[in-house]
Amino acid sequence: MSNKTLIYNAIRTPDGTLLESHDRHDYKQHVDANGKTYMIDGGRDYIRCSNNGDEVSLAVCLEDGHDKVREVMQWGNRGKDGKQPLKWVALKDMESSHIAACLCTQPNMKPAHRISMENEITYREAL
User: Fold this and answer.
1) pLDDT tens for the 127 residues of the chain, in order
2) CA nearest 67: which of 10, 123, 4, 126?
3) Would you list the DSSP string of 15-33?
4) Which of helix, strand or coil describes residue 39?
5) Three-class SS of 78-124
């Protein structure tokens, strides 16, 4: 995965718990029903996770194709007024006007996010 661009960093534990890491130091941990501890960290910068052998990696890279990317790429949103609690929204669930606004007003977004949003606009136009 070293030559790929990480879009989504998550694992699923044996009891079905989803652990997602959104940002570089977004460490998440869970003690599973089986008594083992599972963790993930690194956001979209790197993957660091437990290696118990029974967790499932759900990582997705930009190169995996837009059909996969649009399902899992998430954008943090605090509402139109910016005062709401942080909510993560999948690219496929964002309104087209919201995607366009992000592209216009967020010049420092990660290049992979910009590419994914531009690809989503093209994808929707082709429907």
Assistant:
1) 568 999 999 999 999 999 999 999 999 999 999 999 999 999 999 999 999 999 999 999 999 999 999 999 999 989 888 899 999 999 999 999 999 999 999 999 999 999 999 999 999 999 8
2) 123
3) T--EEE--STT--EEEE-T
4) strand
5) CCCCCCCCCEEEEHHHCCHHHHHHHHHHCCCCCHHHHHHHHHHHHHH
- Tokens read off for 7: 């879009």
Q: Quickly tell me which residue has 């194709």 as its tokens.
A: 65
Q: What is the token pair recorded at 6?
A: 């990480």
DSSP-assigned beta bridge partners for residue 75: 89
- 114 neighbors 107 (Cβ within 8 angstroms): no
Residue type, 53: G
Q: What per-residue string of b and e applies to 34-54 under the rule 16 or more CB within 10 Å gives b?
A: eebebbbbbbbeebebbeeee
d(CA 119, CA 125): 10
